[in-house]
Amino acid sequence: MKIEFRENGSIGIETGGKYVFRQGDQEVVIEKARVSLCRCGHSGNKPFCDGSHKAAGFVAPAAVIELNTDA
Ligand code: FES
């Protein structure tokens, strides 16, 4: 699994093609290869990024975390 912290932006996660989103009583299977999560705190659709980080002037460096599930 690869987690990408985008410069001045969101957290991008490669899903492998789909993921399950659970919140409260809601559970939805979403078929997308990537999901973008908010790390600026300004999204109106948390936990997902809605692009609000741009207007908020969020500043943070880019970074990547790769998880090796074979280890
Ligand atoms: S990182 Fe995009 S809205 Fe927060």
In short:
The protein is mainly β. It has one helix and six strands.
What does it look like?
- The mean pLDDT is about 95.
- This protein has a single domain (about 1-65), classed as CDGSH iron-sulfur domain, mitoNEET-type (Ribosomal Protein L9, domain 1).
- Strands 5-2-1-6 form a four-stranded antiparallel sheet, with no helix packed on it. It has a two-stranded antiparallel ribbon with strand order 3-4.
- Helix content is about 5%, strand content about 35%.
- It has about 70 residues and is mainly β.
- It has one helix and six strands; from the N terminus they run βββββαβ.
- It starts with a strand and ends in a 5-residue tail after the last strand.
- The structure holds FE2/S2 (inorganic) cluster.
- The site of FE2/S2 (inorganic) cluster has 12 residues, from helix 1.
- FE2/S2 (inorganic) cluster binds near residues 9, 40, 42 and 50.
CATH topology: Ribosomal Protein L9, domain 1
- Strand numbers in spatial order across the main sheet: 5-2-1-6
pLDDT below 50 for ≥5 consecutive residues: which ranges?
Answer: none
The coarse silhouette is flat
Count of helical regions: 1
User: What is bound: which ligands?
Assistant: FE2/S2 (inorganic) cluster
How far from one another are the termini?
A: 12 Å
Helical amount: under 10%
Strand elements, count: 6
Radius of gyration: 13 Å
Q: Specify the CATH class.
A: Alpha Beta
CATH superfamily grouping: CDGSH iron-sulfur domain, mitoNEET-type
CATH architecture: 3-Layer(aba) Sandwich
Sheet/helix structural class: mainly beta
Number of domains in the coordinates? 1
Order of helix and strand elements from N to C terminus: EEEEEHE
In terms of DSSP E residues, the strand content is 35-45%
Largest sheet: 4 strands, antiparallel
